[in-house]
Amino acid sequence: MVTLDQCNFSSKLVEVVKPGRREALLSFSRGTFAQVFSTVFDGGKMLIDMSNTRAIFRRSSFKNAMGFAVFSEASNLRFDDCNFDKNRRGAIAMNSTSRAEVTQCRFRGNGSEKFSGAVLLGNRSQARFDACQISGSIPRAIYGRGRVLVALSRCQLTNNGSRPIALESSSRGRLSQCEIDEEKPYTISASNGSTWNFEDSQFLSKAAGIFDSRNQSRFVVTRCSKTGKIEERFDGDSSPNVLSWQEPKRFAGTKVGTYVIDANGNGDFTTFGGALQHLRNKQPTIAMPRLIVRKGVYNESIEIFDDVEIRGEGGPGAVQLVATEDRLMSILNADVRLVGLTLKKGTARYPNATIKIQGRGSLDIERCVISSKDGACLSIAGAYRRADANTPSNYAAPKPLLYIRDSELRPSGYGGAMIYDAIAIIENTEIIDDRAEGPNKRPNVAIKSGGYGRMKNCKIVNSRIFGIHLENGRATLDSCLISKSASEGLYLGPGDARLFKCVITENKLQGMTISPESRALVDHCRIFGNGEMR
After folding, report:
1. Beta bridge partners of 152
2. Residue 395: pLDDT above 70?
3. pTM of this prediction?
4. CA–CA distance, 310 with 518 (Å, rounded to integer)
C-alpha cells in the first residue's frame, strides 16, 4: 500500500508526449493500493500512470501535464474534491475496464485541438461524475469509445469545445440533474449504436443544435428543459426514443439530485429504509445519490447494497439513527459515506457490531458519533470479498476500505473498530470506552488477519483490555494518545507496527508488549507512567 499526504511533485519538462512515451511523475503497478491526500502534481510528460491498481485521491491538484494527468488500465479509481487544470492531452484517460468515481472535482482548460479533452474512456471502462464542474475543455469534455458507460449527476458543463460530450461504438451514457451551458453546436453526439439517457436536466444553448446522432444511435430525454434556438440532427438510421421537453422534476433537496429524509413528513421520505428502497428500485445508474437527513430520531435498522451518501443536517446529535434489531447497519459490496450522524445500538439478543461492512467497497465516515452497548462499534472484514466479473483473473480483488475522520467511537467493552483483512484510515478521532468497568473485554482497536491500520491524531482511552491489539497485521500510528487501558496500551503479536510522536501513558500494565514474531519502529514517542496500578 502506498500513502501520500501533503506532497508536491513537479517537473519543468515541456516536451510533448508522443505515442508510446508515457513517462510519469509516479507509476503504480499491478496490485498496488494507493491513497493520496492534499498532494500537488505539476508538469512533466505525464503525472500518474496506473495499471491494475486501486487508488483514492482526495483534495489533490493535477496540472500542466504535457500528456494525460492520470492514465489508467484495469484500475479502480476515486477522486474527491480534486482540481485538473491545463493538462494538454487530457485530465483522465481510462482503458481496459477501468472504473472511476469522480466527486466534487473541477476540470478547467484540459486538452487541446490536437489531443483528447478532459476525460477519455475506452474499452469497456466506466466513470461516474457527481457534482463536478467541467469548463474550457478542447475539443471535448468527455469522450467514450468501445462499449463504455458514463454517468453525470448534478454536474455543470460550460464553454467547452465542439461536441463536448461524445459517445461511440455501442457506448451508453446517462445525464441526470445537470446544467449544460454551451455555445458550440451539437453539444451531445452519439454514433455507431450508442445510447444517451437524459433526465431532470437543463440545456442552455447559445447556438443551434444539441443532439447529433448517427448510425443507429438513440436519445431518451425525460423531464428536461431547453432554452435558445435548438435543433436536433438525426440520420436515417437513428431516431430519438423519447424527446419529452418539460420542466425538470425538483426534489425536496436544496441541491439538484438530492433526496431528503424528514421524520415529520416534509421531505421525500420519512425513513432511511424507504429512501434506500427507492434507490434500489430506481432505474440503474452509476451515479452516487445523496440523502440529506433532517433533525430527528429514526428508530430502524438498515441494509445497504448500493453506493450512497447519507448526510445529516444540524449539529452533533441532531440526527440520530437508533437500531431496532441486532445490528444497526449492514453494508455489502457498496461505497458508502456517512456525514454528521449519531448512530446508536443498545443491548440486543446477539452482540453484533453497530456497523458491519463486508465485500468490496468502502465506508467513509465524517463527523459521526457511533456507540454500542452490545457489540463493536465498527466491524470491517474482507474475508467475503469476491472478484468482480470485470476484474482480470490475475488481479486480486482489493480489500475493503474504512476511512474515519473527525468522529467519535464509544464502545462499551465490545471494541471500537475491528479490522480484519481490510484497510482502515482513522484521523482526528476519539475511541473511548464509555464504561471503564464490566465483564466484556475487547480492545478499542483490533487489527488482525492481514488488516492494515493508519491512525493519526487519535485518542484511544479506557479500553477494557488492550488499547490496540495487532495480530498478523500492520499499523502506523502518528501523534496518537493511548491511555488508561485495563491491560497494555499496545499489544503487538505477529505483525509490523510503526509509531511516530505518540504518547502511551497511564495504562494498567505495560505501555507496549512486543512478541518475538513482531517488528516495531518507535520514533519520537513518549512512553511513561504505565504499570503503576498493578
Report:
1. 129, 175
2. no
3. 0.67
4. 40
